[in-house]
Amino acid sequence: MSSNAANGRVQAAGEFDYIVVGAGSAGCAVAARLAEDASVTVALLESGPDDHHYTVWTPIALAKTALNAGPRNYAYYSVPQPGLNGRRSYQPRGRGLGGSSSINGMVYIRGHRNDYDQWRELGCEGWGFDDVLPYFRRSEANQRSAKGQEDLLRGDNGPLHVSDLRSPNVFSRRFIDAARQAGLPLNHDFNGAQQDGAGLYQVTQHNGERWNSARAYLHRGDANDRGMNGGRKGLTVLTDTQTLRIEFKGRRATGVRVVRAGVEQSLRARREVIVSAGAFNSPQLLMASGIGPAEHLRGHGIAVVHDLPGVGENLQDHLDVTIQKAVNSTDLFGYSLRGAARMVSEIARYRRNRTGMVSSNIAEAGAFFRSRPELAEPDVQLAFVLALVGNRGNAKKKPGHGYSCHACVLRPESRGHVRLNSADMRDVPLIDPRFLSAEADMDGMVAGIRMIRRIYAQDALMQAGGKELRTDGFGPGDGDERAIRDFVRDNADSIFHPVGTCKMGVDDLAVVDPALRVRGVEGLRVADASVMPTLIGGNTNAPAIMIGEKAADLIRAAA
Ligand SMILES: Cc1cc2nc3c(=O)[nH]c(=O)nc-3n(C[C@H](O)[C@H](O)[C@H](O)COP(=O)(O)OP(=O)(O)OC[C@H]3O[C@@H](n4cnc5c(N)ncnc54)[C@H](O)[C@@H]3O)c2cc1C
Question: For the Glucose-methanol-choline oxidoreductase N-terminal domain, which residue ranges apply (predicted)?
């Protein structure tokens, strides 16, 4: 168990104004912002350990932490997916301070403004793009703004560092050139006025280190900050503390039951409990606490506090497919003697000045494009990866070097769900994304593969040589559509952006209202990626943090 000065205190105190469950992307923001008011007390409860570890702060370590189960990755699997020929989908989730922002790809994307305007049209008053932009800006310290290029879209003074890559790889630049040769425009800022085009991603890094939400909102990376609270006296951060259920008096949430070092205890919340346990564990916790589809809960012997059928429904995720090309260059990550020698020198370089390949987020460049010109916004995202990385199902370590490009459909129509395997939060949740259950999603996947192969065929990448892997069956040109569809069903998997399982809204399946209050009970909110009514067109870390920022204001406004 992590040592933490606050750990001793809680045994005696055990009572706070607010309890936030889950110290991930959103939870750190909610708790820290609430604790800015020195007159309130906040407990931030986290199942996993602290984040003072080289595998968190060293960018390249994500190759290990994101792809393998470990102390900082739950590494869930879905139930078998008929749309993926019966394969289980790999579903990594961060555990410990920072949550998934401690193992993610660090790509900083907010999504398209139309995504948020759609939320507002769905009844989420106060969540249109112009409403949420101030929260994106408040969270952000963009390196470009610090250089005096601030505009009305970017923030320069927030806790979340957003930086340009320190040592962009020569192949990332080749990819961008090839994408331009294939007809995509150059885009210097995917979070600027236009999302379309190809370019380098900005990353949640600072001075070449990962900047997760715990560094941003809690301790700034200072391992000597024993309370892990950045000096906020009212904020008690409890690691290795799993919440087992929310406790109620009638319909009012009064606190939580937790387990710490094998010992169960109750913590009281005088004002509110805020659940920020992520898209899988937030609905799991609500259900384990008696809030959810009544029949399902009774089936697991759980006393129903409130019958809320939408809990766990509406699961949306970005399905992703990868095309790999073997290229014999140690500028690319891979397994070879020459590659190992290169990594030794790159590690030394990183130790010296936090630059080079070790500071890479591996998915340095990417693109957004419209698979049909009549679309109002890009519907496919590409991420160019500097290694031979397949989708999880075939991610075996093989000798050699190469690159890969991911394509995902940004607004899938498939809807899945999260349910309980048992009433015990120590059990894993049942995850069923129902990938490709909506046939329309396949069209975007095919368009994505075709765009990747068009880009691969351009001079800027062809000059580096190499051989495309496993695409022989596609045939010439754009390839045989049926063969590509088969490839998708055999290979595609999640790119790790599950959302929507405690959706915000005003319809019967809404779990929280636009103030993030759980419908039908008192003193309980959800604030994390699970409240998104629809998946946004991009990566989901920045939006989850935005939700945390806005949640804190909504909670304060009600106090
Ligand atoms: C491998 C990977 C790569 C990704 N790459 C990117 C990327 O490059 N860019 C991007 O924008 N997004 C990326 N994402 C997605 C993004 O990181 C997530 O959408 C975002 O972090 C979700 O934030 P959250 O607050 O909803 O949940 P999380 O950050 O997952 O936080 C939930 C927290 O709650 C804790 N918790 C759960 N249950 C309990 C309990 N019962 N008691 C106490 N604590 C509990 C968990 O341990 C965790 O710390 C990636 C995700 C993964 C997994």
Answer: 94-117, 278-292
